[in-house]
Amino acid sequence: QFMVPRCITSITVMSQPRDKNNNFNALRFLFASLVILSHAPELQDGDRGHEILTQIFGTISFGEMAVQSFLLISGYLIVKSWQERPQVAVFLTHRILRIYPGFVAASLVCALWIGPMFGANDYWAQFRTGDYLKSLFFLKQPAIPEVFAGSHYVAVNGSMWSISYEFKCYAIALIFGLLGFLKKRNVWLALAIFCTVFHVINRSGWANLPSDLTIRLLMAFAYGGCFYLYENALPWRASLAWVGLLLLAVLMFFPMTAQPALCLFWGYAILHFAKSGPTVWGFHRWPDISYGVYLYAWPLNKIWLWYFPQMNLAALVLLVFLSSVLAGLLSWYAVEKPCLKLKALLPRSPA
Predict the structure, then answer these.
(1) Which of 112, 143, 106 is nearest to 1 (CA)?
(2) What distance in Å separates the CA atoms of residue 157 and residue 221, rounded to the nearest whole number?
(3) Rounded to two decimals, what is the model's pTM?
(4) Tens digit of pLDDT for each residue in 39-65?
C-alpha cells in the first residue's frame, strides 16, 4: 500500500472535434504541464504545502485544477461525440483505442523496465502476473512490487489510477445516451447539480457522507457536458469569461466553493478560449502528446529524484518537463497514432 498525493491527476483522452482550428490541444498540453509543476515539490519532500496554488488558496492544487480542466474538456467533447454519432460500437471503439494502447504501453514500461531497475533484488519473485494483468485490464496503477523504496510516495506511477475514473465517466455518458437522457438536457443538468450539492454538503460537514472523490470527478465531467448541451443557449463572450475568473479568484479561498466554482467559471472560460480564442502557436496542428506527457511524468520525476534527490526544484521541473515531452512524442508516434488509425477499419455508417 502507498499514499497518493492529494493532488488528483488525470488526463483527457479523446479525439479532436471536427473543427481542428481550436485550442483544445494547447489546453490539454498546458494542463499536463501543470500536473508536473504540482507533483514535483511534493515528490521531492513529501510536503504538499510547498505546491504553488495550495500556498495561494489553501484549498486546491495545480494538479486538482488540471484534473478538473481535463474532465471539463472531456465532458464537453465526449457528450458532443455521442450526440453526433450515437452508436455504441463506434463510441466504445473510439474510446478504447484512445485510452488503452498508450496506457498499456506505459504500464508495461513501469512493470518490465522501471520495476526491475528500481525495485528490490527479489522483484520478480514478488511479481504476481494475475494481479498485474487485472490492474492492466481495469486501467489501474500497475500492481507490481514496491519500487523507489525509501522515497516519498513509492508508487511506480501514482497518476495512472485516475484513468479508470475517466473511463467510468465515459461509461456514464454512454448509459445516459442509451437511455435517451442526453436528448433531455435537463436530466444531465440534474446530474451536475446533484454532484455539486453532494460535494458542498460533504465539505461543509453538515452530513457524514462517504468520500466524494468520484463525485468531484464526475461533477467536472457533468459540467463539461452541460456546456455542450446548453451551448446555443449560453452567451459566449470574453467579458463574461473575465468576470467569471474574478469571481473564481474569490471563491477559490473557500473549501465548499473552490471546485464547483472551478467547474462553472473556469469551465466557461477555458471552453470559450478553446472554441473562440486565437489559436496558440499552431498547437492545433501539433501531435497531441498530452496523454503521453501525463503517463510518463510521474515515473520520470521519480527517476530524476532517485539519482539527484537534492536537485534544485526549478531544474527538476524543467528536466521532468523536457523528458516527459520526449516520452509523449515517442508514445504518440510509436503507439497512440498507429492505434488510432485502426478506427478507419470500422464500417462507415451515417452520423
Answers:
(1) 143
(2) 24
(3) 0.90
(4) 999 998 887 777 889 999 989 999 999
